[in-house]
Design a protein that fits this description.
Helix content: 40-55%
Distance between the termini: 96 Å
CATH topology of the largest domain: Heat Shock Protein 90
CATH superfamily of the largest domain: Histidine kinase-like ATPase, C-terminal domain
Strand content: 15-25%
Number of domains: 5
Strand order of the largest sheet: 2-1-5-4-3
Largest sheet: 5 strands, antiparallel
Structural class: alpha+beta
CATH class of the largest domain: Alpha Beta
Number of helices: 14
Length: 559
């Protein structure tokens, strides 16, 4: 229809040029119009601006009614190409009308309308329908014939594939389907074989991953147990077997209560089954020697969105040492409080006594003030030792790291303490090699360690005794020992000697001015150098304290 419209529009413009060439003399162009209408099989109508028909190739113009209201004419009067299709009232035939405005401004003809019968279009449509029906019938017959043959050939690979699928489902992974055709079934068979090979590889990888995962979980130091909803053991690693006494057994599939008889753990498991929320509980396991554990319990869910809870996994963290440290901290606070309270109470009591009138007695006042001064000094020393100990503990990893001249430091300390030793007629002997390696660390801490060891030896050695300071070294370590021939220490006390505020003889320690922190400070200084401290002693024969420190000649830091 669009093609016919385009052709008629072109013919209308040709007629417009003919009119323009003849000066709108219709008498001269009428024979030409008749020829065009007959040869091209269309009807020509010329319409004036008022709708009056000036010429029509099929009917006399004076017999035709006014065409100003025709749809295609109205559009053409507006300056556009109008098109409509209807049965002609004049000739009684279905026509396609195309009206084109005449571009000549002075022409009497305003619209040139051409019309063609639609019988040719209808005939083309009928022919097309016949062709489509014929092709459909032929195609249906061919499709049925080929389809039957195709279905017969289709069933063979499908049966083979079904048989191979059943074998794969039975565990024979890697089964193949053999098809030599190059069609879709051949491609499907090749895809099936590829899938079978990949499935075999994936299952082998999954098996290897499961083996690796079990090996990893079995090697985890923390005990790990997984149970299902019936509290049957799904997995238990070696660490868990050890703490529950299940070494050499296979607990998998058995009730966890057969191995773990702990009411808190049962409450944790049953509660988690109901809430499905992770929990942390602290429990004490008597099977592990009354050790304390934090139990982290988490639900096991299916690996999909909104998966149901299928069990619980528990990880045990040993916090026994943490609880022991908390106990030590409480004891330390109590000891500090006691050590601080004793001199403060003494000072407060003497001050109140002086205020009560004793200040007027010069002899009593001086004696009380000496005691107050002694207690204040002891209190100051205690606080200083606490600050030193705190500083050492806090800065063990990131403290000062400088070279230390061992000979000079030891000689300086001996010179410093010779006067106090001389008051008791105690000789301090130094046994130092001619050359000593350079030690790296905090020089002040090392000096404090030497001071505490030699000062302790002097304090607990009776008059006329002697103290020996000796240094030896080998390829790995530097060994510093301080030996005396003093009162010695009983074996029962040696294990706690380096604890804070621990005193073998509290009365004697206070008499000699000890704070109870000297050896604790020595221990932490030795640890900061990466070394170890030990003691040998017998009552009445003296004591020997030995600090073994790793060499750092190359400047590397020992942690």
């Amino acid at each position: 229809m669009n093609g016919i419209e385009e052709r008629l529009s072109s013919d209308a413009r040709y007629i417009s040029r003919l009119l323009e060439m003849e000066g709108d003399d219709l008498g001269n162009v009428t024979p030409e119009f008749q020829t065009l209408s007959r040869d091209l099989d269309f009807r020509i109508t010329l319409i004036a601006a008022d709708g009056v028909v000036l010429y029509d190739s099929s009917q006399p113009a004076e017999t035709l009614e006014n065409h100003g209201s025709r749809a295609e004419v109205v559009i053409a009067m507006a300056g556009q190409v109008g098109r409509s299709s209807r049965a002609s009232a004049t000739i009684g035939t279905e026509l396609l009308y195309v009206a084109v405005p005449n571009p000549a401004p002075d022409s009497e003809v305003a619209v040139i309308r051409l019309a063609v019968p639609l019988t040719s279009v209808d005939q083309y449509t009928r022919n097309l329908i016949q062709i489509v029906i014929g092709v459909a019938v032929i195609g249906l017959v061919a499709a049925l014939t080929l389809g039957y043959r195709w279905i017969v050939s289709l069933m063979r690979p499908i049966k083979e594939m079904s048989s191979a699928t059943k074998r794969i489902a039975s565990g024979y992974y890697g089964e193949k389907v053999y098809a030599d055709s190059g069609d879709e079934f051949g491609e499907l068979a090749r895809s099936f074989n590829t899938m079978s090979d990949e499935l075999k590889v994936k299952l082998e990888e999954t098996g290897a991953q499961n083996t690796q995962m079990n090996a990893i979980l079995s090697s985890v130091l923390n005990p790990v147990i997984a149970v299902d909803r019936e509290l049957r053991i799904l997995f238990i690693n070696g660490s868990a077997k050890k703490i529950f006494g299940a070494d050499g057994l296979e607990p998998k599939g058995r009730y966890i209560l057969d191995f773990v008889r702990n009411s808190k753990m049962v409450e944790t498991l049953t509660g988690l089954m109901k809430t499905n929320e992770p929990t942390v509980r602290e429990i004490e396991l008597t099977a592990a020697g009354r050790d304390v554990y934090n139990v982290y319990a988490n639900p096991i869910r299916e690996f999909k969105e909104g998966g149901r809870n299928i069990g619980v996994v528990m990880i045990f963290q040993d916090i026994t040492e943490i609880r022991q440290l908390e106990t030590m901290r409480k004891q330390f606070v109590a000891n500090v409080s006691h050590e601080l309270k004793t001199p403060l109470t003494s000072i407060k009591g003497f001050v109140e006594t002086l205020r009560g009138g004793a200040v007027d007695d010069v002899r009593v006042r001086d004696r009380f003030l000496e005691i107050v001064e002694s207690e204040a000094t002891r209190l100051s020393e205690l606080i200083d030792d606490l600050l030193i100990l705190t500083d050492i503990e806090r800065r063990t990893e990131d403290g000062v790291y400088e070279p230390i001249d061992l000979r000079k430091t030891i000689c300086d300390v001996v010179l410093m303490l010779e006067d106090s030793a001389a008051t008791k007629s105690i000789a301090i002997q130094k046994l130092l090699p001619e050359t000593l390696p350079i030690l790296h660390g905090n020089p002040n801490w090392f000096k404090q360690m030497v001071i505490n060891l030699i000062d302790n030896a002097v304090k607990y050695t009776p008059e006329g005794g002697h103290v020996t300071v000796k240094v030896t070294f080998d390829a790995k370590d530097i060994t510093l020992s301080v030996r005396d021939n003093g009162i010695g220490i009983e074996r029962d006390h040696l294990g706690r000697l380096f604890e804070r505020f621990y005193r073998v003889d509290k009365a004697r320690s206070r008499d000699v001015g000890g704070t109870g922190l000297g050896l604790a400070i020595v221990k932490h200084i030795v640890l900061s150098f990466g070394g170890v401290i030990s003691v040998k002693s017998e009552p009445g024969k003296g004591s020997e304290f030995t600090a073994k420190l790793p060499r750092t000649d190359a400047g590397q830091r020992v942690l």
